[in-house]
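Re: the 212-residue chain
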Amino acid sequence: MKPKKNTGQNARDRILDVSEELFANGSFASVSVRAVTSKAAVNLSAVNYYFGSKQGLFQAVYVRRATLMNHERLRLLHEADEAAQAQGRDVTLRDLISAMLTPPIYWLCDEDKGFSVYIRFLARSYLEEASDMDNVLRQEVDVFARFVPYFQNIKPELSEEDVYWRIHFIMGVMHHTINHLHRISLLSHKACKKEPWETTRDRLVAFCCEGF
């Protein structure tokens, strides 16, 4: 039986919004289906109807905004490629790494649009084992594969294996940053304060360029 519809926001979207917030603040195991449906004001059966299971719900929360974020990464890559061609040069290392890191850092600081909740969810999701993240992350893997030929063109001395390892390290730096950005104040004895997202992004990109 189809769950009863609630007025206003679509029930499926409401479940996703509520789940995103709950999973961002708690582990996969600690968030119950009942807590989700209660806060979303839908029938208990709604999660199974729309997503098949709690696991399916978790994956849907990830994919919903990951699709947007990865689309933005590819858009920035395309823009960098077009600009480079127009100027008769190759895409730079900074162009590539900036295209990879700009969307998550922007979303982390973009509280008005609610994407910062997803970034907190994303940071926590990488720590989950029960969530079967290997299957969920395939979309991200496919997107990063589009960057590999550009990296190899810039660094022809690197093997494909080397490039993937370095992308892996870049993602590790990114995940640590989005998960622990608040700790920089403590680490620096408050010398480092909140700054525009572009400044944080530029610091991160510069560091990763040197490491690459």
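Residues 65-211 form a domain with the Tetracycline Repressor; domain 2 fold (CATH 1.10.357.10).
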